[in-house]
Structure formats: structure tokens, C-alpha cells
Amino acid sequence: MAKIHPLAVVAPSAQLADDVVVGPGAVVEAGVVIGPGTVLRPHAVVRTGTTLGMRNLVDSFAVLGGDPQDLGFDPRTETFLKVGDDNTFREGVTISRATKPGGATTVGDKTLWMANSHAGHDCRIGNGVIIVNSTLLAGHVVVGERAILSGGTAVHQFTWIGEMVMTQGHSGLGMHVPPFVMCAEVNQVVGLNIIGLKRNPALSDDDRKQVKEAFRLTYRAGLPRAKAVEAMDACQWGPAASSFRDFVKRVLAAEKPHNRGLCPLSSDS
Q1: Does some domain include residue 236?
Q2: Number of domains in the chain
Q3: pLDDT for 153-182, tens place per residue?
Q4: For residues 212 and 229, what is the distance between their CA atoms, to the nearest angstrom?
Q5: Domain for residue 57, yes or no?
């Protein structure tokens, strides 16, 4: 049976696994589903429409599944927040549920959300992502696996961030960021995430060489984007460099409201 502190408020229709721990002052609203091994620390709030997988930690004053911060949203609309396993949400984290009926904001597995970070409605966050203190994601942002968004990063709505991207603190992103790169300041790619590439055991030396070539063709060869894609299409690449190429293709083909363009290379790089 779940261990619920007498000062917590848990709706009768909430479904809690037997070993869930709910601290004093925490609130679990109607219809919430919480998986095994999950801990809600004092004053954590999990709102209607939220599903948490296994072994999640929700720290004090975090609010998961709150109403979208959208003036046109009707709070009676049934939307969702779906969270995977082994995630940590530290103090003051807020994540909004989706806006359209039946839609879901989603968080994968093994993510870390540091204090006072936020993801808006309809975001999709991949596995292993790290969201550092006070980072802010507007609605409909997509963040690829193992990306690290450093403290104070702000991301505009409908922006895509590729896997293993790393941002400098206080970066601003309003354009799409391809996989494996580092960003700084406002919409500035400053190079590849070399350390991240080296540390990823799933990547071979050939994968790393191919990613470097994809980066060169996109940013350093002096080619128009369409020509860079043609050059990449002629290469026989594995999944890592292919994901870089496919991301660029998707950005070039994007229609409103996703037609935000590809982050350019900094003039200092």
C-alpha cells in the first residue's frame, strides 16, 4: 500500500502503486497514475491528466501537469502529461499538459530537471535529457535524446533541438538546432559537441568522423543548404550522421509554424 503522509491530499480516483511515497503537503489530483518506486517530496503537486512511470522523484514545489499557459486554453479540455521512468524533477520544476483534446506533453526516461526549469504545453522531451536550473522551454518544443540545456537557456515555441546538443548558459534559441552541436548566445552554433561525441559509447570512430563530415558540409563548405543536403545524400553513412542529414532536411521542408530555419554558425567559429 502506498505510503501517504496524513497531511498529503490524494484524490480517491488517483492510482498509486503499492510502494509510492507521498510527502506532507503534496497534492495528487483525480485520475493521476503513479508507477512503482516513485517519490513525491513535501508539497509536490501532480495534476489531473498526468501519468508518471516508475522510480520518478518529484521534489518540493514542483508542479507536473498544470494547465497550459495559453490564454485560449479551456481548462475543461482533457489533455495529458505522460512521463516515463527514472526521471528527477527538482524543486520548483513546472511542466504543462497539452492543449488539444487528447494531446500529450511527453517526457522520456532518465531525464534530470534542475530547480525552477519549465517545459510548456505539447513539448516532447527525449531520454537522458538534462534541463539545468531556470531553463525555459516554450510550447511545442522538441528536445532530442541526451541533450544538455545549460542554466538559463530559453527556447522559443515550435523549436526543434537535436540529440546530444549542448547549450551555453543563458543561450536563446528560436531556430532549429541540429544534432551533436554546441550553441551559445542567441541562435549561434559554435561547433560540434566533441566531448559528448567521445563520451557516447554507442558511437564508433567512424560515426564520429561521419558526423564531423556532415557538420562540415552543412556549415563550413560554403554550400547552400540544399546543395549540402545533396552532398550528404551521396554519402554512405551510419545512423548518427544520417540523423544529422535528416534533421537538416526536415528543417528545410518545414512549414508554418515550424519554419524557423537552421541555426547558423557563429562568425567567431
Answers
A1: yes
A2: 2
A3: 999 999 999 999 999 999 999 999 999 999
A4: 14
A5: yes
| Residue 38, domain CATH | 2.160.10.10
Cβ contacts of 60 within 8 Å, gap of 6 or more: 23, 41, 42, 43, 44, 91, 92
- In three-state form (DSSP H/G/I as H, E/B as E, the rest C), the secondary structure along 59-118 is CCCCEEEECCCCCCCCCCCCCEEEECCCCEECCCCEEECCCCCCCEEEECCCCEECCCCE
Cell of 173: 534559441
- Give the end of a domain, one of 116, 140, 164: 140
List, in sequence order, every residue forming a beta bridge with 105; answer none if it has no partner. Answer: 81
Q: Determine the pLDDT at residue 191.
A: 97
Q: Do both 50 and 135 map to the same domain? A: yes
Both ends of the chain: CA-CA distance in Å?
57
Active site residue ranges: 121-122, 139
Which of residues 140, 165, 180 is at a domain's end? 140
> With 0-12 CB in 10 A as exposed, 13-18 as middle and 19+ as buried, what is 189?
buried
112 and 238 both lie in a single domain: no
**Residue 208 included in any domain:** yes
Q: Give per-residue pLDDT as tens, 118-134.
A: 999 999 999 999 999 99
Which pTM was predicted? Answer: 0.95
- My answer on whether omega of the bond before 224 falls inside 30° of 0, hence cis, is no
Residue 41: the pLDDT is: 98
70 within a domain of the structure (yes/no): yes
Which helix H or strand E contains 21, and what residues bound it? strand 21-22
Phi-psi region of 65 (alpha: psi -120 to 50; beta: other; left: phi over 0): left
CB count within 10 Å of CB 267 equals 6
Per-chain mean pLDDT for the chain: 97
Reading the block at residue 139, the C-alpha cell is 510550447
Question: Which structural domain, as residue segments, surrounds residue 88?
Answer: 3-140
pLDDT > 70: what percent of the chain? 100
